[in-house]
Write a structure and sequence with these properties.
Radius of gyration: 19 Å
Number of helices: 13
Number of strands: 4
Largest sheet: 2 strands, antiparallel
Mean pLDDT: 76
Oligomer: single chain
Distance between the termini: 27 Å
Structural class: mainly alpha
Number of domains: 2
Order of helices and strands: HHHEEHHEEHHHHHHHH
Shape: globular
């Protein structure tokens, strides 16, 4: 992967994210370091180093902080839905993964895409903005500097393409974590109607982790797990899942 010198960061995104603001100063400081590490990682946006997950022990050494404090900060961040995990447990930034998906789709068009109004423009032609309804994993809404640009471009083919790419990327994150892969097309249709932002996606993924530990979702090879479209239609992330107390308190790090 070609190294990038920087990633987009909006101060107002950082200041307005309710989940992030609920975390301690130490946890927020750890998170900005984690974002920097994920920017250098492969795959992009994942907390990995040299082909392996960057665990709490290595992370503590890299940030120069006691292991106990790093574990506490990771617990805070995960409970607040600041980051997500892959099925194998790798920590990743939802926004960084989504941005990378959009960049890849742009690159597929090659230089001819500059003349195609249905393809996102180069950054020197149009600012790369995100919908206010799609808060990043490190912020809740676009900065004031990006808002005016977004309002000017929100009805352009490029902006609509970015919006669709963002929704699809979030859906793929949800789909990868949902334990029962059935009727993906129907689930995508429901997702398109709901248009969950990153905050809601974080809530969904957190509830899925709880649901996966309940008897109904673990017995009989998971045959009682609802289909993804059914779970989305029924707002399953708002349900209460009865998990054993010892399992509730265990947060994988």
């Amino acid at each position: 992967m070609k190294s990038r010198p920087a990633f987009q960061f909006y101060p107002s995104d950082w200041l307005r994210d309710p989940g992030l603001r609920s975390c301690s100063l130490s946890a927020r400081g750890l998170w900005i370091d984690m974002l920097a590490f994920m920017h250098e990682a492969e795959p992009y946006g994942h907390l990995r180093l040299n082909g392996r997950d960057l665990g709490p022990e290595a992370l503590a050494r890299m940030v120069g902080c006691p292991l106990k404090e790093v574990r506490q900060c990771l617990t805070e961040l995960e409970r607040a839905g600041v980051f997500s995990r892959t099925e194998s447990g790798t920590i990743f930034s939802r926004r960084m993964v989504r941005d990378e998906t959009i960049r890849e789709k742009r690159a597929q068009g090659g230089y001819l895409s500059a003349n195609n109004p249905a393809v996102p423009c180069r950054k020197d032609m149009q600012k790369d903005t995100l919908l206010p309804s799609l808060p990043p994993s490190f912020g809740g809404s676009p900065s004031s500097s990006s808002s005016s640009s977004f309002l000017k471009n929100m009805n352009t083919p490029a902006s609509r393409r970015d919006m669709l790419n963002g929704h699809r990327a979030n859906f793929e994150i949800f789909w990868s974590r949902y334990p029962r892969k059935r009727n993906k097309g129907q689930a995508e249709k429901v997702w398109a109607k709901l248009q969950p932002d990153d905050v809601l996606l974080g809530e969904m993924l957190a509830k899925l982790e709880q649901a996966k530990q309940t008897p109904d979702w673990t017995k009989d090879d998971g045959q009682f797990i609802p289909h993804p479209a059914t779970w989305l239609n029924g707002k399953g992330w708002e349900d209460v899942y009865q998990v054993a107390s010892q399992q509730q308190e265990r947060i994988p790090l």
